[in-house]
Amino acid sequence: MRLTHWRGPSGELLANAVQTAAASAHVEGPEIDGRACSFGFGKQLDVKVIRSAAFQDRSTITEGKVAGYVAKYATKGAESATGTLDRRLKLIAELSQETIPDHAARMIRTAWALGARRDLEHLKLRALAHMLGFRGHFSTKTRTYSTTLGALRDARAVWHRRHAPAPEATTLVLAHWAFDGIGLTPDLERLAVLIGGSPAREQAVTADA
């Protein structure tokens, strides 16, 4: 867990608050094989106050700097996430053909096994087993304090519509014409002779007139 810049001694206070909240937070899980499950944070909790030269008093904190710093650690986290697969598993036997850490393999097998339970089928754990059963986003957000990915997509769409160049005048082509030939085909010419005489003679009469 990383905390971006927090001015003054309140940075340590916030770090202590995060540690206290993590120690007391838990979520009640389902009852599996007669055992009630409860989920919470483990002992591997790393809370640090980040102080960088880019966030000193002589430098203005901008949205771009904050976004760039978050993107740096988001990319770093994605590079180290080698315990997941880039595709879904059709059969759990496919896992033996993959090169992943043993711990991640156990988590995938656990998600696959739990996905077979009817009381957990709404979680779709088998479809998400390659992602260790997790179907969320790598960053957490709250609707009250922050925003949502849907709201960000809508804002980007509005921006693109406002800044999109005016459409240029174009010509819509509904059909394509090509030269096929002049006069009658040999078969139609013979048919015309049988019906009413030679077309060549009629053209000559017309030309003389």
Describe the structure.
It is a single chain. By secondary structure, this protein is mainly α. The chain is 39% helix and 8% strand. The protein contains 6 helices and 4 strands. The chain has helices at 10-24, 63-80, 102-114, 149-163, 186-196, 199-208, and strands spanning 2-3, 26-32, 35-40, 48-49. Strands 1-4 form a two-stranded parallel sheet. The longest helix has 18 residues, at 63-80. The relative contact order is 0.06.
TL;DR?
The chain is mainly alpha-helical and 209 residues long.
Percentage of residues in helical conformation:
25-40%
End-to-end CA span: 101 Å
- Strand % is 5-15%
Strand order of the largest sheet: 1-4
Order of helices and strands, N to C? EHEEEHHHHH
The class by helix and strand makeup works out as mainly alpha
Number of helices: 6
The major sheet is characterized as:
2 strands, parallel
Which term fits the overall shape?
Answer: elongated
Which residues sit in consecutive blocks of at least 5 with pLDDT less than 50? 1-8, 202-209
- Give the averaged pLDDT, no decimals: 75
**Rg (C-alpha, Å):** 36 Å
Number of E-state strands? 4
